[in-house]
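Researcher: I'd like a candidate sequence for this fold, 261 residues long. If you have to choose between options at a position, lean toward the conservative one.
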């Protein structure tokens, strides 16, 4: 493709924004069918901070994924949602946006080969982080969702998302593989400084809320040292050798398999 035919950064940004709107509108329709969700990752951090919409991330400015956690659902509604999302993708309406769907596991979920921490529904109606036979309950107020909006600079309209509060979003980064990935440290530091400065939460309260999840990570390291060493090595290779691109070059079936483990 010639330089003249390459899409401009502004047009890619606009398209990324519009595609994210399509997915969030689909999620809103399914909320009326009692499928609850939360948006995680960079979209959530920017929305909580009140930052303008940014499609890029990191030094490479690769396009940001839309990370979705499905919390409550029935098997039928989840199947229908996946089908409708697949139809959007097959129709060519999602050309630049990658959508990552994670689903909170049922209370009976157990997997001794689990590779990363999962959300799990608890029998009492709450949620927990679970890794193999380790489980850390989440306080009910942690998983309450709130609506936030992101606006594209100089454009009308907004991207409205459901997400958790600041502490829960940080906890999701902390517990995913049992430690904070190096590529996320600076953005979480900036995020924490912003929410503290804006009075979302006090420093003492934030530390208190995150303490159980720090202990959960320590338990993961102690009980599964081989897994911990493997993940540290894998994250190092991905971050510093491939600039976090391994996930993006994996075929879709392998991505889905990893997310199910």
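Model: Candidate sequence:
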């Amino acid at each position: 493709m010639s330089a003249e035919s390459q899409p401009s950064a502004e047009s890619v940004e606009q398209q990324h924004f519009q595609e994210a709107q399509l997915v969030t509108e689909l999620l809103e329709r399914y909320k009326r069918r009692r499928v609850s969700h939360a948006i995680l990752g960079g979209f959530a951090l920017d929305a909580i901070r009140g930052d303008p919409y940014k499609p890029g991330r990191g030094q490479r400015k690769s396009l940001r994924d839309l990370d979705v956690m499905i919390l409550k659902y029935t098997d039928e509604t989840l199947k229908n949602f996946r089908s409708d999302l697949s139809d959007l993708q097959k129709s060519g309406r999602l050309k630049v946006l990658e959508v990552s769907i994670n689903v909170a596991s049922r209370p009976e979920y157990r997997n001794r080969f689990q590779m990363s921490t999962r959300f799990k529904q608890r029998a009492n109606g709450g949620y927990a982080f679970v890794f193999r036979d380790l489980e850390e309950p989440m306080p009910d107020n942690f998983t309450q969702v709130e609506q936030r909006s992101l606006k594209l600079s100089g454009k009308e309209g907004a991207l409205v998302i459901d997400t958790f509060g600041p502490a829960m979003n940080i906890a999701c980064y902390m517990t995913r593989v049992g430690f904070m990935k190096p590529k996320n440290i600076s953005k979480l530091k900036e995020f924490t400084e912003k929410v503290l400065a804006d009075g979302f939460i006090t420093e003492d309260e934030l530390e208190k809320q995150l303490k159980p999840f720090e202990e959960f990570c320590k338990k993961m390291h102690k009980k599964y040292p081989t897994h911990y060493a493997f993940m540290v090595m894998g994250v190092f290779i991905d971050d510093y050798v491939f600039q976090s691109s391994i996930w993006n070059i994996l075929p879709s079936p392998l991505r889905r398999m990893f997310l199910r483990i």
